[in-house]
What does this fold into?
Amino acid sequence: MEHSMKRPLLSFVFLLATAAASVSAQVRGTSPVYSLEDCLRIAAQNNVDIRVADASTHAAAAGLTAAFGNYLPGASISANYSRQLTNLQKQFSFVNGVPIQGEPLPNNYGLSAGLTWTVFDGMRREANYDQARNTLDAADKRGQSQRLQIGVDVRRQYVEVLRSMQVVKTRRENVDLSRNTLDRIKAQYDAGRTAITSVYSQETELANQEFELVRSENDLNVAKARLLFTMGLNPDEPAEFLETSFPSSAEQSDVEQFRQRLGSLDACVARALGHRPDIAAARHQASAAESGIAIARGTYFPTLNASGGYAWRNTEIANFDRQGQVSLGLQLSVPIFDQFQTNANIQNASLTLTQRQADVQRLELQVRQSIQGAFLTLEAAERMLEITSRALKAAEINQQAALERFNVGSANQLDVLTATNQLVVSRINRISAVYSYYDARYQAEFASGLMTAQ
It folds into this structure.
């Protein structure tokens, strides 16, 4: 019984400690801590380019609604009132041939309502609707493309922040190690076991490492500011970023699985041309330009409009039936000669279509080029993973051996410094290789349309 009661209590304590650790991980001092998911979510809400793209989509949707409104009749109603203030004249009327004098009538009331409807306008209405629909589709695809671009920018910049953080961490560890080494050499000098030149040499090495640390810290701050800007936040606000929200290593199995998911170069090109929203947007813009030619050509045809209305005017608010008038009408407008304006409009619309088709071809070529570049970058990143892994293992063994030989007096300080510097360079190269690989993966996913397909 006592044992069964302890188990829920221990579970509660464990959950409480886990929650406290989570809260501690999310708040470091007064600086907010962002995970990769947080950065993506905030960028989707705050990035100014995304907000502009969304506004463009809303405007294009309003344009489509307006194009549909051309199929509906236009309606209007108006009312007026006026009162004569000077030079009022008495009214005369005849009843059974007898003139009768009445009081002046200073008030005048009016009411009118009308309907107009375009029966035929040379198919311009239909072409205008097609153009508005393609414009909306293009704006929507551009918005999707902008969100994908911002998403990949956030991921790549997050990778750069984490890489800079790891480099700073390595530099600090190296500075701490150099300070300890300097203290040990000073102790040896005080004991008469080494020359003063060894102290000076280590002090120079420490200063050089501190210089590299300052430069690495500056690179980190710049990377953070760049990421905050992309997120739509103030670039100079303090912020931290979670290292645990991103893998810190790249195993060979992960590399092979990604290669299989990415596919061949030809498969990536086909997927990109079929799924990337920026290409779809360019194609919709070309279709909208085709509708522009139909709109311009429509002015060669006659236009037929139907109208109907009601008008009432009186000196008092009464007699709507006797004083009101109902009318119906048709208006046919036939173009005879427009000083070659229609031909000029058609040529300008054709030029726009040619430009839009060229934009599609240019973008398709750029996509092919970006996929080729992404494949080359990914291949180089995979090779750097293998090379830096071998180099790091060898540098660790060499540095450990140099320290052991130095402690027993069979190696000098220069041997230790050389081995330590090789280890630091190998560690930084390994860090850069891992994060460069994930950066290359994001480039390949975006360029090939894999990110869109997912």
